[in-house]
Amino acid sequence: MSIKVALGPSRAPSTLAVEEKPQISLEINVRRTLAGELLIRDHSEIDIVIIPKSNKILALSKESMSDSVYEAQSRLFDYLRDKGVIYPDSIQGGNIYASLEAAYPILEDGRDPVEIALFTIGRFMEEEMPYYEWESAYQEYNDMQLADPPPSETTPLGKVPEEPVKGSIPAAGYPSRYLRGIAEDKK
User: How far apart are CA 79 and CA 60, in angstroms?
Assistant: First the structure.
């Protein structure tokens, strides 16, 4: 399901008679769980869950925990903190392995904090996208280099010339020659 987040002017219950157009809109791919939580799976390393019942945002590792996953979670919560969406002192490790969570405030001026959180997370994803596109292109290039290297970097099978001696240190008798050299140096 694709949710369109549209932020408009704040509304008091009886002040607007005509529906106004939103000031900003953003399209983001969101799924609603059976418990009513919003699940955002667009990020390549983390899943983001907005939990309206407990006013929390949770970032989970997609696969296994690594430094890059923690860094992505940290960047998310730093971004949300800098934008004023979450309480700065509420960022903490979640009760699920490899997760971070933070609480967001309940707004009393009529604005929906879930819409604001969705919009801000969408902006975060837009900022992260170029990095992950570059990383994906780089990985694809490396895979192509390994699977089908250019002819200038390969040797046809069976065409490697044989050398009588390979390497700079002869394999046979190495320790005794080395020790003789040390003994001669001491004299």
Answer: 16
Cα–Cα dist 84/113, whole Å: 11
Q: Which CA distances in Å does 126 have to 15, 75, 76, 153, 180? A: 34, 13, 12, 38, 67
Q: Is residue 12 part of a domain?
A: no
Name the nearest CA neighbour of 102 among 66, 47, 51.
51
**Is residue 78 situated within a structural domain?**
yes
Tokens (6 digits) for 112: 């929906």
User: Cα angle vertex 110, ends 109, 111, to 5°?
Assistant: 100
The verdict on residue 116 lying in a domain is yes
Q: How confident is the model at residue 14 (pLDDT cuts 50, 70, 90)?
A: very low
136, part of any domain? yes
Tens of pLDDT, residues 91-108:
999 889 889 999 999 988
**Which token pair is 68?**
């890059």
Residue 106 Cα to chain centre, angstroms: 28
Q: What is the pTM of this model?
A: 0.65
Domain count, the chain: 1
H or E element that contains 121:
helix 113-147
Structural domain boundaries, residue 34: 22-147
